[in-house]
Amino acid sequence: MLEVIDAQRRYRGGRGTGPVSLTVSAGEVLGVVGPNGAGKTTLFDALCGVGDLHAGIVRLDGRELGRRLPAELCGFLPEQSRLFPQLTALQACRFEAAMRRLEMEEDALGEHLTRFGCAGFRDTEVRRLSQGMTRRLGIACAFLGAPRVVVLDEPLNGLDVEGVLLFRRVLADYLDGGGMALMSSHILSVLDEVCERVILLKDGLVAATVDVPAGGAERAYLEVFGR
Ligand SMILES: Nc1ncnc2c1ncn2[C@@H]1O[C@H](COP(=O)(O)OP(=O)(O)OP(=O)(O)O)[C@@H](O)[C@H]1O
């Protein structure tokens, strides 16, 4: 289980996120929803070590990890691609593996790219990829090595229909293997499909935690934020 306790990152002027507490069980996707500026990206970035949490504790499977998820345990798909434009898809994947201290042979990296629908452009530089291809590659990098946790900020942005179907499949396989995911989306029906629980962020704080089968993310969103 992932436990985040009183995580906080506030910028000068008070904007940002926290204190926020949340849990994610093995095999679960916890959805994170909120209007623009609610603090989702700040929270995800800080949990994954892009900018520090100013306060809070992260615990994984009972082990205290300090204020961030270490790279070897966590795959991260940021909202905007941070892949180096001059690397090929395969090189970007190799770079990600090195950053996360994963020992993967070239063949395994190639197979991984194929599984994530990136085989057709494995030798193409990132700067020459379409938005959807770049997103697929970002997703492939996040799931590299089947990390204990994946943090996915708007994963469907830019994906075509095939990409969405592929994403659903790989996410389901990952969860079947006991993985856990934190995922934001502005498309509430997507969260209804894959999440058992959703947290609603408002001004950086958790305004509500919703069991999805009890009514869905959309109804909860309307109750908290109105129309
Ligand atoms: N580097 C920064 N310096 C100061 N304020 C910031 C900085 N980054 C974000 N903020 C502010 O912190 C708040 C949370 O921003 P954040 O990007 O985390 O929201 P978000 O929920 O991800 O929004 P969106 O849905 O638009 O991506 C906003 O008010 C934003 O203006």
From TrEMBL:
<dbReference type="GO" id="GO:0005524">
    <property type="term" value="F:ATP binding"/>
</dbReference>
<dbReference type="InterPro" id="IPR027417">
    <property type="entry name" value="P-loop_NTPase"/>
</dbReference>
<feature type="domain" description="ABC transporter">
    <location>
        <begin position="2"/>
        <end position="224"/>
    </location>
</feature>
<dbReference type="InterPro" id="IPR003593">
    <property type="entry name" value="AAA+_ATPase"/>
</dbReference>
<protein>
    <submittedName>
        <fullName>Abc transporter</fullName>
    </submittedName>
</protein>
<dbReference type="GO" id="GO:0016887">
    <property type="term" value="F:ATP hydrolysis activity"/>
</dbReference>
<dbReference type="InterPro" id="IPR003439">
    <property type="entry name" value="ABC_transporter-like_ATP-bd"/>
</dbReference>
<keyword id="KW-0813">Transport</keyword>
<keyword id="KW-0547">Nucleotide-binding</keyword>
<comment type="similarity">
    <text>Belongs to the ABC transporter superfamily.</text>
</comment>
<dbReference type="Pfam" id="PF00005">
    <property type="entry name" value="ABC_tran"/>
</dbReference>
<keyword id="KW-0067">ATP-binding</keyword>
